[in-house]
Amino acid sequence: MANVSVYNMEGKEVGKIDLSDAIFGVEVNEHLVHMAVLQQLADNRQGTQKAKTRSEVSGGGRKPWRQKGTGHARQGSIRAPQWKGGGVVFAPVPRDYSFKMNKKEKRAALKSALTDKVQNNNIVVVDELKFDEIKTKRFAEVMNNLNATRKALVVLADNDQNVVLSARNLAEANTTLTNTLNVYDIVNARTLVLTKDAVAKIEEVYC
Fold this sequence. Notes:
6 strands; single chain; alpha/beta; 6-stranded mixed sheet; 2 domains
């Protein structure tokens, strides 16, 4: 069972916390993590690109010149792909890029991503994040106190608007809730910042 330090908003250690091995101490499955990231990126693709094939381009119903005797190569339509204004060969069409992963695979991928952060000492647990007002400067100070100034993902147990809006203008920090936590955001973050309440909620949901 991993034992990590708990810090306050000033960056001072205020205690220790044991992380459940069932979530933060599993065997890392890189393949499932890779698949989960691919799935999220694929789900985000619109898939609305479209170009016309030679059968959809208007015009070109008549053979441009006779088959033989002109000195030109034979042509059947001025809308063939080699002509200017012609159709596109193997033109892209609207499609759905998404694919499915079952629930056990998704859960295993999330646990693997969390475990990897623990193993590489890229996780910070803070006792609480509470702001009396929306203050980006104050949030930046807290991240600096926690040594999480580069690509930090802050995981909250509850939707505290003062915290969320304080972090919104920081390019190097993102916030998410435990119920919207996903593998891509974890992998993409350099430092994972969890509140004690968030840790408890994650262990309650995924154990």
